[in-house]
Design brief:
It contains nine helices and 14 strands. By secondary structure, it is α/β, with parallel strands linked by helices. It folds into two domains: about 1-135, no CATH class; about 145-389, Purple Acid Phosphatase, chain A, domain 2 (4-Layer Sandwich), CATH 3.60.21. A six-stranded mixed sheet has the order 1-14-2-3-4-5. Strands 6-7-8-9-13-12 form a six-stranded mixed sheet, with helices on one face. The chain has a two-stranded antiparallel ribbon with strand order 10-11.
Length: about 400
């Protein structure tokens, strides 16, 4: 139910933004016709319509199922820029309309107060553009390292302090360059990882530079190797098999219903991985995953989708690593509660969650999807240290 509600919400938001774009174009064209001679006015009006049509196309391409299309680099840029512009202009328009509704209308009002209100209104209308500009040009590539202790009941002393490093949701695309991702890999290699995990979404759509992403991932170094699972965008782009085979040649193991046992002294870390678990199939999460469990070992599950956590805990997985949500990507904190789109899909948006003796860590990941911006959810490399609870 949450998946369909989230999808419907996305489609309604896209339709509303598209309608606002055409309404704004109508108003702009009316002004053009009022101030310019007929011939240049006609040419400029046609230009405005072409621009809005391009924005509308970009919005259509941002529908989730468009991820299955082999988009060219140009269409990828168009989609991202359209979402940025539509989001900011729609927010600015809504603020403007709200200010008009509640504007001080008294002709006898203090002129100083009217000027102050006018200045405040202008700043409020400009705020969405400033925020999204910051999210696009600053926070989107403000890669950080998040270190956290993970309490594990009855943890074997040979696993105490074990350092797990997680990278997720890379989305190498027009809005995350290979050079930027190389910086992430360099930073991860400096974190003294004993095991490195990659939890899906290497690219966004078919046509994105998957080979370049794999080349960068092949540079990752950890004492016990690099393990991973696939995400929904590997499914959409139909690259699951290719990704798995090519990565294996480079020394990276993407686990697809398989487990890998890693020995640390007298303790065993049993890592299982599953393919993307569809969010519209909640009643059938993790079929057969319990057969990958290893008695006496610390059982760690890699699942791109964090929504599987209750089932993973019930099956007996000690610790789950996930991504998918981007921490909301655009997140507004109100009274310690994050307001973001990801909450329509899952209660496990970002951070550490526990259920009984089991826990899950959901990372914010590296890249972006849809709109090439992050606000209140900066990209991260996760360093997870195992501690005895």
């Amino acid at each position: 139910m949450g998946f369909y509600f989230g999808l419907t919400t996305e489609l309604m938001a896209i339709a509303a933004m598209g309608a606002v774009q055409w309404w704004l174009a109508y108003r702009v064209n009316s002004l053009i016709k009022s101030y310019l001679p007929p011939v240049p006015a006609r040419l400029l009006c046609v230009t405005v319509r072409i621009v809005v049509a391009a924005i509308t196309l970009g919005l259509i391409l941002s529908v989730p199922h468009a991820s299955r299309l082999p988009l060219t680099r140009f269409l990828g840029y168009l989609r991202g820029v359209s979402l940025l512009w539509a989001f900011t202009s729609t927010a600015a328009w809504l603020i403007y309309r709200a200010l008009r509704l509640f504007r001080w209308r008294s002709e006898e009002a203090d002129p100083t107060r009217r000027a102050l209100l006018r200045t405040a209104g202008t700043a409020a209308v400009a705020a969405p553009f400033a925020l999204v500009g910051f999210g696009t040009f600053v926070e989107r590539t403000a890669f950080g390292v998040r270190e956290m202790d993970i309490p594990i009941p009855d943890l074997h002393h040979d696993l105490e302090g074990l350092r797990l490093v997680q990278i997720s949701d890379i989305h190498l695309s027009p809005f995350l360059s290979e050079r930027d991702f190389a910086r992430v890999v360099d930073a991860a290699n400096g974190l003294r990882a004993q095991v490195m995990f990659v939890t899906g979404d290497l690219i966004s759509v078919r046509g994105d530079p998957l080979d370049a992403c794999l080349d960068q991932l092949s540079r990752l170094r950890a004492d016990a190797g690099v393990l991973g699972c696939l995400g929904n965008h590997e499914v959409y782009a139909r690259t699951e098999e290719y990704t798995t085979v090519q990565a294996a040649r480079m020394g990276i193991s993407f686990l697809r219903g398989q487990a890998r046992r890693l020995q640390f002294g007298n303790a065993t870390l049993n890592v299982g991985g599953v393919d993307y678990q569809k969010m519209n199939d909640r009643h059938h999460y993790l079929p057969g995953a319990e057969h990958m469990l290893s008695p006496g070992a610390l059982n760690v599950l890699l699942s791109h989708n964090p929504d599987v956590f209750p089932v993973a805990a019930q099956q007996g997985w000690d610790f789950t690593l996930a991504g998918h949500t981007h921490g909301g990507q655009v997140n507004f904190e109100i009274l310690h509660y994050g307001m973001n789109v990801a909450r329509f899909y899952t209660p496990y948006v970002y951070g550490l969650y526990t259920a009984g003796r089991s826990s899950i860590y959901v990372t914010r990941g590296i890249g972006t999807i849809g709109m090439p911006a992050r606000l209140g959810a900066p990209p991260e490399i996760s360093v997870l240290r195992l501690r005895k609870a």
